[in-house]
Amino acid sequence: xxxxxxxxxxxxxxxxxxxGLGCMSMSAFYGPPKPEPDMISLIHHAIQxxxxxxxxxDIYGPHTNEVLLGKALKxxxxxxxxxxxxxxxxxxxxxxxxxxxxxxxxxxxxxxKRLDIDCIDLYYQHRIDTRLPIEVTIGELKKLVEEGKIxxxxxxxxxxxxxxxxxxxxxxxxxxxxxxLWSRDVEEDIIPTCRELGIGIVAYSPLGRxxxxxGTKLLDNLPQDDYRKHLPRFQTENLQQNQTIFDKVNExxxxxxxxxxxxxxxxxxxxxxxxxx
Length: 277
Hints:
Elements: E1 6-9, E2 14-17, E3 20-22, H1 24-27, H2 36-48, E4 53-55, H3 64-72, E5 81-86, E6 88-91, E7 94-97, H4 101-115, E8 120-125, H5 134-146, E9 150-156, H6 160-169, E10 174-178, H7 190-197, E11 200-204, H8 211-214, H9 236-256, H10 260-269, E12 275-276
Parallel strand pairs: 3-4, 4-5, 5-8, 8-9, 9-10, 10-11, 11-12
Antiparallel strand pairs: 1-2, 6-7
């Protein structure tokens, strides 16, 4: 069985698999939760294939995705690099972004318990709380590093200015952002900032939330409660233009002797040796 290569993520010493596994859709947002035994088997297969960089968040479920990962990692914890996130609270059917120190610590303790681990490898701030200075949130994360509860700090969906300010308080290991063949605005400012500061880049939704699997045909099979049904890119007025993009990707993939998803991933992997997806 072919295995996936390894890479240095950022400049703080973290090493991960070149290809990661995002676990969100196993428990939330992409239709109903998937059968737990099947998902645990999938995670184990990924690890055996060399995909050891696993991504979750406390908002996935909420909480149930972390519980799933905790069960799946029994006996294989030392083989994986585990990333989870804090910063979005769910309540009364709404999401609230929060980054105050008390919440940061509470969220970390909760994730450690659900994942059944002693230390989180990479802890992302899932979304930036603009109500308080980023320095306040990163200051608390720095304390968690010093206490051994987390190893590395990451940011998700942060501006270039915020990344700089956060990095000045404590080195940021990775920035997670949407980057794919149909989402490239990050190339203007955020990617150069990360590279200037030696911060690793983790691209989420590299397959366009599944669009680069089958194009508009994807919508025929989405469950009723799949949140992609509400995204602008999946609305009728945008589908024709997006299908044109997929058709071009599909044509090139055929010439290369691969599938559209393989081509989409290969494109990202060729953006630099500091990119993981």
